[in-house]
């Protein structure tokens, strides 16, 4: 009896269960019969526990607000901030760059400016400024074609478009550098520059401008009449477009998942995982890396 008791205790069964089985089968019962009865009792108790738990949960009544009214803090905060224009950065658009891009570098398309402005208005931005040289008010010429010119006057009346100064001196046009207006206003207002120009000459003027242009330049593309900025303005591991346009980020960024292979990864720049050791290195293909290592 004691040997069977000790054996069952080592297997993890409770003392009262073992005693009940031995009393039922008798002290002379085989150890296999005792274990079989213990297993049967264990399964029975588990099924009873599950049934009692299911019966307990079935009578629970939810309290509080309706589940549809419950939203995660992120979503509710995001909706709140999307409607709140105070959290959106001011937008400064390089009108000449946008218009020439929409005109395929062949003409100055004012419709491209309107498309860009409409895109930001739909996002909830109210502080939008477009800079265009004043000489674009002149009539279209074969060497400087311009289309939909009435849009410029319309946006000027809406106090969205600003003409940079220009004048004629002895028949020669004197034009102020509109890029300096764009960068200066965006820097002073802590806004976003919308342009495909890198402003390299202005980056060399002031170090604070250089850092600002690198971090606040929003490039774009036109697909026919659709204005399309990138979803990752500062690269794959930078902020999303929604957070890039906000003063305070709301939507949490996806955490950078490190590559499981680490430094042994052979995918090079095509690897979809994050490589912290490659953060400050130029992205080279695997073939280029092999050539460099072979030379070394």
UniProtKB/TrEMBL annotation:
Cited InterPro entries: Rege-1_UBA-like (IPR040546), RNase_Zc3h12_NYN (IPR021869), ZC3H12/N4BP1_RNase_Reg (IPR051101), Znf_CCCH (IPR000571)
Low complexity bias locations: 48-58
Cofactor requirement: Mg(2+)
GO terms for cellular component: cytoplasmic ribonucleoprotein granule; nucleus
Keywords: Endonuclease, Hydrolase, Magnesium, Metal-binding, Nuclease, Zinc, Zinc-finger
Domain of life: Eukaryota
GO molecular function: hydrolase activity; mRNA binding; RNA endonuclease activity; zinc ion binding
Cross-referenced PROSITE patterns: ZF_C3H1
One Pfam family hit: UBA_6
Annotated spans, Disordered: 46-65
Residue intervals of every C3H1-type zinc finger in the record: 253-278
C3H1-type domain sequence ranges: 253-278
Signal peptide: none
CDD domains xref list: PIN_Zc3h12-like (cd18729)
Family the UniProt entry places it in: Belongs to the ZC3H12 family.
PANTHER family linked to this entry: N4BP1-RELATED, RIBONUCLEASE ZC3H12B-RELATED
Protein name: Putative ribonuclease ZC3H12B
Lineage: Eukaryota, Metazoa, Chordata, Craniata, Vertebrata
């Amino acid at each position: 009896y004691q040997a069977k008791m000790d054996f069952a205790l080592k297997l993890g069964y409770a003392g009262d269960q073992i005693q009940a089985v031995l009393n039922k089968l008798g002290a002379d019962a085989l150890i296999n019969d005792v274990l079989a009865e213990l297993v049967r009792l264990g399964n029975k108790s588990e099924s009873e526990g599950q049934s009692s738990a299911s019966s307990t949960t079935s009578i629970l009544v939810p309290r509080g607000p309706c589940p549809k009214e419950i939203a995660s803090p992120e979503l509710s905060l995001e909706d709140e901030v999307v409607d709140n224009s105070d959290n959106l950065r001011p937008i400064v658009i390089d009108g000449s760059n946008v218009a020439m891009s929409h005109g395929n570098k062949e003409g100055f398309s004012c419709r491209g400016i309107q498309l860009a402005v409409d895109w930001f208005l739909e996002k909830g931005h109210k502080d939008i400024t477009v800079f265009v040289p004043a000489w674009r008010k002149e009539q279209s010429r074969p060497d400087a074609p311009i289309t939909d010119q009435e849009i410029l006057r319309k946006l000027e009346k809406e106090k969205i478009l600003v003409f940079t100064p220009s004048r004629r001196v002895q028949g020669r046009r004197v034009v102020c550098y509109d890029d300096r207006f764009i960068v200066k206003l965006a820097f002073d207002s802590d806004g976003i520059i919308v342009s495909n120009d890198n402003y390299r000459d202005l980056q060399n003027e002031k170090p604070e401008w250089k850092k600002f242009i690198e971090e606040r330049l929003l490039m774009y593309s036109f697909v026919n009449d659709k204005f399309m900025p990138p979803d990752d303005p500062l690269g794959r591991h930078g902020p999303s477009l929604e957070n890039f346009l906000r003063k305070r980020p709301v939507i949490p960024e996806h955490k950078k998942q490190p590559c499981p292979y680490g430094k042994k990864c052979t995918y090079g720049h095509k690897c979809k995982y994050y490589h912290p050791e490659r953060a400050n290195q130029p992205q080279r293909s695997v073939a280029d890396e092999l050539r460099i290592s072979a030379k070394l």
